[in-house]
Specification:
Blueprint (H helix, E strand, L loop, with lengths): L4 H40 L3 E3 L2 E5 L7 E11 L8 E12 L1 H10 L4 E16 L25 E18 L4 E13 L6 E17 L2 E18 L4 E11 L2 E11 L4 E8 L5 H5 L3 H4 L7 E16 L6 E14 L7 E12 L8 E11 L2 E10 L6 E11 H5 L7 E17 H6 L6 E15 L6 E10 L3 E11 L2 E10 L1 H7 L3 E9 L2 E2 L19 E14 L2 E13 L2 E11 L2 E10 L7 E12 H7 L1 H6 L6 E2 L1 E11 L12 E8 L2 E3 L3 H10 L8 E2 L2 E8 L2 E11 L2 E10 L4 E10 L5 H16 L9 E10 L4 E6 L1 H32 L5 H30 L1
Parallel strand pairs: 5-6, 24-26, 25-26
Antiparallel strand pairs: 1-3, 2-3, 3-4, 4-5, 6-7, 7-8, 8-9, 9-10, 10-11, 11-12, 12-13, 13-14, 14-15, 15-16, 16-17, 17-18, 18-19, 19-20, 20-21, 21-22, 22-23, 23-24, 26-27, 27-28, 28-29, 29-30, 30-32, 31-34, 32-33, 33-36, 34-35, 36-37, 37-38, 38-39, 39-40, 40-41
Helix pairs in contact: 11-12, 12-13
């Protein structure tokens, strides 16, 4: 039986209309819902919440509604102004469809059933006063223009994909980081009592408390089914598990949310007693062939947390970890590590995080035939760390390499012997009360050798000795080699504990010497460089000397001077060296106060540098003084240059500024394109490869151009005045003015001179009195392809001056002749002679005026 055609068509039309409506309606109401969501979030949190794109769909999670938000960010306000608390690449919220309909009709609450976050990144901070940047919930909601209800949350599922979290708690001196976070949380929050099922994984978790690392890049998994009572705000754990690498901890207890504190009663323990499980927390061992590691021995780990945690409350906690008769061996290495014993206790009676006591009562291990023993106690870790440290033993590094797999280490040998004990409070060190500090011991190194993939060349230490005193750590001797470079050093470090435990300033000084230091061995084979940061908490002074230092084609001899590292700045102090067949004195600094934009300020005094050598070796000379390519001779001068560096550690030439003066003796210029073009344009062959007498010039560098102030260059009988600029892009913009002896004037200028001379000859004048002819040229284009435009106005000026001089001489000659005739004439002819003299003078003046006019016309 066939289905009636008309009802089928009607049904299809209804279905199509419904599909069109489901596709179009979300587009119509998307902005309204997004605006409502943003309004409710603004009423609830004291932060700037924004997102880039909004998508609304009914079909994706039918019958519910999916709301998608791209590029979500939550930015803090004061006192964390500008901090990004949370950023999410993509957030997906599944909204209850009935609640969306009620909202559209009556403005009722919207119910969120699922939340899915893709690549969220949270940055949590706590200041010294306890202020937390995640405390953004408004205490009282701002007034609204009409009745509204907040967005409701009846969450069924919450997921995180590839998240990250960092915590910097300055008040508790706690730092933590989580990377590669995957989270799946299920439960029906619409019920008062429910079971929350959480499955958590993190690729890497690190935890540092009071300067002591407790976890370092540990993989984490949490599997828990939590009984939740939302009315009582109580969460109960029963036989749930936490895995840290290979170590599994079972935990149980409860957490009850109060106002403002969280009541905790939790306990945990390790079901397994295998030593390999706790050994997995050592990153260097867990990261390489841990599955094939042979182990033996027993361990135990257990702890508890009990009490209130909140703004002014801290719970008591205790942790015990012990290892007995531990041993491990890699199947492909010859030696085991054995007799490993650990006894660690961490306790806090509650009330304050500063009451924590970390006590490594015993650490013992034998590597090869040498035992190593250590102990460590730290009290009041936040307010005034009180540290008691002891270390005793001798380690044969060759045995270490035959026991532990060291990443990237190809060869390791030598002996390190230590006998160190220290007991000190940070306040004693800060106040300089070194008489109250108990510190003694030595660390010695002999016949150390290391070849590593992370080092460009092998490193050896013939001998080194470090002596600990209450005030400082003194390097009494050091002699070694890095590749082809030898190094000898002595020095001392102050405030080592403050630097290690509390990021305080590490102070010190050292004297370093070398017969030959080869910087080429530290050049990266990678064509790209990265910014070299200067550490913030270091105040270090260095006096360095070297008989010879090489870098690329540069060789410096008799190098000596000072270097200071302080406040993210490296300062050079009167660093002297012989190089480029002359000498250099350098002062200045390099700093990374803004880590992404390093800057430098360098002053140089150079004496008798060989120009060809300097051009071949120094990129800056090639960029700023390209004419040096064709010069032979030496140069001296003072230079000051400053500006920013790029991410490749090369100067940003367009932003450089500087100034300086240069002096030279006689120079020989060979094949300079500008001079070759100038010689052709003016027919002055003597300019093609001239010998230049001593010169002095001043310059400034601004906006990527080197600008020279006018200076004279003497080339034989010719004087050339130079002014203008050249750019980093090798562009030229110079004006040249030449004064050329008339006898050396080339054909081009000679034709103009001849024309003027001809005009003067008609007037009976002689131009041989013009000693020099003025020529000019405008130079543009580039260094390798210049454009020279000659200017002959100077020729006319020179000739005009000669004509003026000749006219004046003619007038004076005629006048003198006339006066002589007047004086020799008889008394009876005086009147006729005087008339003749007046006529001759007038005629001479007419001739002079004619010559002047013709000279002026030619000059124009």
């Amino acid at each position: 039986m066939r289905f009636p055609r008309k009802p089928a068509l009607a049904l299809a039309a209804v279905a199509a209309s419904l599909l069109v409506a489901l596709a179009v309606v979300p587009m119509l109401f998307r902005d309204r819902i997004a605006t409502r969501l943003k309004t409710e979030i603004g009423r609830s949190v004291n932060a700037r919440v924004s997102w880039g794109g909004v998508a609304l769909s009914v079909l994706a999670d039918f019958p519910n509604v999916r709301l998608g938000l791209d590029r979500v960010s939550v930015v803090d306000v004061k006192p964390f102004e500008g901090d990004t608390l949370l950023s999410v690449r993509r957030a997906r919220l599944v909204l209850d469809v009935a609640s969306v309909v009620r909202y559209l009709r009556t403005g009722d609450q919207i119910v969120v059933r699922e939340i899915d976050l893709d690549r969220p990144s949270a940055r949590l901070r706590v200041l010294q006063d306890g202020s937390a940047n995640w405390d953004i919930a408004r205490k009282t909601a701002p007034p609204t223009s009409g009745p509204t209800r907040a967005v409701a949350l009846t969450l069924r599922q919450f997921r995180i994909h590839d998240g990250s979290v960092t915590l910097d708690d300055r008040k508790s001196d706690l730092a933590a980081s989580v990377a590669g976070l995957q989270e799946s949380l299920r439960g029906d929050f619409a019920r008062e009592k429910l079971v929350l099922s959480t499955r958590t994984h993190a690729d890497s978790v690190s935890l540092r408390f009071a300067g002591v690392p407790y976890l370092s890049r540990v993989a984490l998994e949490v599997n828990a089914d939590v009984a939740a009572d939302l009315r009582a705000r109580r969460f109960t754990f029963t036989n749930d598990s936490l895995r840290l690498n290979n170590l599994v901890l079972a935990f149980s207890g409860s957490a009850t949310a109060g106002d403002p504190n969280l009541a905790l009663d939790l306990s945990f323990s390790a079901p397994s007693t295998a030593f390999r499980d706790i050994l997995s927390l050592v990153p260097a061992i867990y990261a390489r062939d841990f599955a094939r590691l042979q182990t033996s021995g027993r361990m135990s780990a257990a702890g508890r947390v009990r009490g209130a945690y909140g703004p002014n409350a801290f719970p008591s906690f205790a942790l015990r970890a012990q290892v007995e008769n531990g041993a491990f061996k890699y199947s492909d290495l010859p030696l085991p590590a054995r007799d490993i014993a650990v006894d660690l206790a961490i306790d806090n009676p509650g009330g304050d995080v500063d009451s924590t006591v970390v006590n490594l009562k015993r650490f013992h291990a034998v590597v090869g035939r040498q035992p190593l023993d250590a102990g460590f106690v730290m009290r009041t870790p936040v307010s005034d760390p009180d540290v008691d440290l002891r270390l005793n033993g001798t380690v044969n590094l060759a045995d270490v390499a035959r026991t532990v797999k060291l990443a990237g280490v190809n060869d390791l040998s030598g002996v390190v012997a230590a006998d160190v004990a220290m007991r000190a409070r940070m306040s004693q060190l800060n106040a300089g009360r070194y008489d109250q500090v108990a510190a003694r011991g030595t660390v010695g190194v002999a016949r150390f050798a290391l070849k590593s993939a992370t080092l460009p060349h092998p490193m050896t230490i013939d001998t080194a000795s470090l002596r600990l005193t209450p005030r400082r750590a003194e390097l009494t001797t050091f002699a070694g080699r890095i590749g082809n470079s030898d190094v000898k050093a002595t020095g001392a470090l102050d405030n080592v504990l403050g630097f290690a435990l509390r990021d305080e300033v590490l102070r010190g000084e050292a004297t370093v010497s070398s017969e030959h230091f080869d910087l080429n061995e530290w050049r990266s084979s990678d064509t790209t460089m990265e910014i070299i940061p200067v550490p913030a908490n270091v105040d270090f002074a260095l006096q360095a000397s070297a008989a010879r230092v090489t870098y690329g084609t540069l060789t410096a001899a008799n190098v000596h001077g000072g270097l200071r590292v302080k406040d993210r700045r490296v300062t050079l102090d009167d660093l002297r060296m012989d190089m480029l067949r002359g000498s250099v004195v350098a002062n200045g600094f390099y700093e990374t106060t803004v880590p992404t934009r390093p800057t430098f300020d360098l002053g140089l005094r150079v004496t008798s540098l060989d120009i060809p050598t300097a051009f071949a070796a120094l990129t800056t000379v090639q960029k700023l003084a390209p004419v040096a390519r064709w010069a032979q001779g030496t140069v001296s001068g003072d230079f000051a240059l400053k500006g920013p560096l790029g991410h490749d550690m090369l100067p940003l030439y367009d932003a450089l500024s500087g100034r300086g003066t240069v002096e030279s003796g006689q120079l020989v210029m060979q094949g300079v394109p500008v001079l070759s073009k100038l010689a052709e344009s003016l027919a002055l062959e003597q300019l093609r490869n001239p010998a230049v007498e001593a010169l002095r010039a001043s310059f400034e560098i601004t906006n990527g151009r080197l600008r020279v102030k006018p200076f004279d260059v003497r080339m034989g009988g010719t004087t050339m005045t130079v002014s203008g600029s050249n750019g980093i892009d090798q562009s030229l913009s110079y004006d040249l003015a030449l004064a050329v002896p008339r006898a050396e004037v080339g054909a081009a200028a000679g034709r103009v001179v001849s024309r003027l001379a001809s005009q003067a000859g008609k007037a009976g004048l002689d131009l041989s009195t013009a000693d020099a002819v003025e020529l000019g040229a405008r130079v543009t284009g580039t260094v390798m392809n210049p454009t020279v435009t000659p200017n002959f106005s100077g020729v006319a000026n020179s000739t005009r001056d000669a004509l003026h001089y000749a006219a004046k001489q003619a007038v004076e000659t005629h006048v003198a002749d006339a006066r002589q005739r007047v004086d020799s004439a008889a008394e009876d002819a005086r009147r006729r002679a005087r008339a003749e003299a007046d006529r001759v003078i007038a005629e001479a003046e007419r001739h002079a005026a004619t010559v002047r006019e013709e000279a002026r016309t030619l000059a124009e």
